[in-house]
Design a protein that fits this description.
about 200 residues, alpha/beta, seven-stranded mixed β-sheet, 7 helices
């Protein structure tokens, strides 16, 4: 049994697109950054903590015939060494989008898989280049509501696509889940269970 420890609709869609059968159980954790914690360590730590919390809560479902596998993920945007999570309000969204305008930033996603016998973690990094975006364009985008629940205050698969001429790395990582790395990590964590994870 595969459980995705995330409430993100984007991650749900990407896993389903990859042909996996899974259940959803979001983990409600404190996602505050630790003092002096690098972005790569931060997203990998949160991914593991989410997966571990959900595994612990559903441990009774783990059986030798159908081992419980929990996938956790966390994404952040890094610009100028600053970690940009989801904006707290419209002013915060405006600040983030202004910072990203006309520059290249990094999107990091940590992924973790927890089973009864192991914990595996991985990290994917994509470089994303933004065109210059005017204040009025930013204001119009914020009014749409799209930026308010997205790391870095934008969705590459949404309206903001018009400002992104180039990326280097995995597109799906920017959406919220690097699919190829995720499938590889699941296969490594539970090789015997892999066929059962894929829809026939």
């Amino acid at each position: 049994m595969l459980i995705l420890a995330s409430a993100s609709p984007r991650r749900h869609e990407l896993l389903a697109q990859a042909g996996l059968k899974f259940k959803i159980a979001a983990a409600n954790l404190n996602e505050d950054l630790l003092e002096n914690e690098p972005a790569a360590a931060y997203v990998q730590r949160l991914a593991e903590e989410k997966a571990q919390a959900v595994w612990n809560a559903h441990e009774s479902l783990d059986t030798p015939e159908d081992p419980l596998v929990v996938l956790g993920a966390d994404t952040c945007v890094v610009a100028d060494g600053h970690i940009l999570g989801k904006p707290t309000d419209t002013a915060d969204a405006r600040r983030m989008l202004t910072l990203l305008s006309g520059r290249t930033h990094a999107v990091l996603t940590g992924i973790a898989v927890v089973t009864s016998t192991k914990v595996l973690r991985d990290l994917d990094i994509t470089q994303v280049t933004f065109n210059c975006v005017t204040d009025s364009e930013i204001a119009q985008y914020i009014v749409s509501g799209e930026p308010l629940d997205k790391a870095g205050a934008y969705a590459i698969q949404g309206y903001a696509a018009r400002w992104i001429p180039r990326i280097e790395g995995c597109y799906f990582n920017v959406v919220g889940l690097p699919i190829a790395r995720t499938i590889a990590l699941l296969a490594e964590a539970a090789p015997g269970a892999a066929p059962a994870l894929v829809e026939s």
